[in-house]
Amino acid sequence: MSAGKSFRLVASLFACAVLSTPAHAVFRAYLASDGLDTNPCTLVAPCRLLPAALAAVDDGGEIWMLDSANYNTATVNIGKSVSILAVPGAIGSILGTSGPAVSITAAGLQVALRNLVIIAQAGGSATHGISMTGASNLSVEHCLIANMPSHGISIVGTGKLKVAHSILRYNGDYAVYAQNGPRVEVTSSQVLAGLGGAGGINAYATGNSTTVVTVSDSVFSGNSPGGHAIYGFATISTGIIRIAVTRSTLEGFTYGLRCETTDVGSAELSVSASTITNNSLGWRVNGIDAVIYTLGNNHFTNNFSNNGSMTATPLM
Fold first, then answer.
1. Least crowded by CB within 10 Å, which of 96, 292, 311, 316?
2. Topology classification of domain 68-312
3. What SS3 class is residue 275?
4. Is the dihedral of CA 53, 57, 59, 62 positive or negative?
5. E strand or H helix at 304
C-alpha cells in the first residue's frame, strides 16, 4: 500500500467527523490519482487535478497530494494564498505543458510549494517552472524543478521568493531569474546547470528598482564553458543590484561571480566563506559602479583567469 493511501486509511475516521463542513469552507483540500474533480476534495472524496482543488480550498488553506501522480493538464494559475504539498512518500508532479507550469500574477498572496516535482513535458511548449509577476510571497521547499526550457523560477517585480532544500536541475536558462525589484533567498539548495544553460542566478535591474539576492549553504555546478553561477546586472541609472553569497560552492561555469553595469546603475556583490573553483573566470567586474567584495575567507582555486578587481573588506 502506498504512503498516500495509508495516510488516507488512517485519517478517514477524522475526515468523517468534518464531512458536515460547508462546501464553501474547505481549509484543506485533497488530491489523489483516483480522485474525481466532481468530488468535494475531501479526504474520503478527493479531487483529481489542481484547478479543482484551488477552486475548493479557502484562501489561506492547504492542498494535499495523497499519492504519486501528475496533478495538472495545463498551467496551474494560483490566485489565492495557499500551501500545496505532497504527503511524505508521495511524488506530487506538476507538468509544464505550454507556458509556465505554475503562474502567480496576483499581488498580496502567501504561497508555499513543498515536496513537489515540476518538470517539462517532452515535446511540449513549456517555458518556466514557476513564473511570478505579482507582488506576492512564494516559498519553494524540498522541491525539484527540472528540464524547463527557460528559467526554473522567474520572478519579476516586487515579490519575495525563498527557495530552501531544493534542487533546480538542467533548466534551459537560469535556475532563478530575478528582475526589477524582487527579494530572493536561496538556502541549502543545489543548482545543476544543463548543457548550454545560462546558469544559476541572474539578478537584473532594468528600471527604477532594487533587486536583492541572498545565497547561503548552496552548491552551483555548471557545464563550463557556459553560463554564470551568480550574475548581477544593472542597466540604467536607477537600477540597483545587491547580492550576498556565503558558505556556498560555485564550480564549472564560464563565470563564477559576475557583477556588471552599463556604466550606469549600481551593482554590488559580496562573497564570504565560499569556494569558487574550476570556472573559466573566477570573477568578472565591469562598469563604473560595479563592485565585488570579498571578506577574505573565500577559496578561489583552479579558475583559468579573472577579469577586473575584487575589493577586500574586513570581517565585522
1. 316
2. Pectate Lyase C-like (2.160.20)
3. strand
4. negative
5. none
In the DSSP assignment, the letter for residue 51 is: H
Scan for cell 564560464, then name that residue.
254
* Predicted structure pTM score: 0.91
Q: Kindly state the helix (H) or strand (E) to which residue 9 belongs, with its residue range.
A: helix 3-17
**252: Cβ–Cβ under 8 A, 6 or more apart, which residues?**
193, 221, 222, 223, 224, 278, 279
Rounded CA-CA distance 103/159 in Å is 13
pLDDT in tens, the chain (316 residues): 455 555 554 444 344 434 434 445 599 999 999 999 999 999 999 999 999 999 999 999 999 999 999 999 999 999 999 999 999 999 999 999 999 999 999 999 999 999 999 999 988 899 999 999 999 999 999 999 999 999 999 999 999 999 999 999 999 999 999 999 999 999 999 999 987 778 999 999 987 889 999 999 999 999 867 799 999 998 876 789 999 999 999 999 999 999 999 867 899 999 999 999 999 999 999 998 999 999 989 999 999 999 999 999 887 6
What does DSSP assign to residue 47? Answer: B
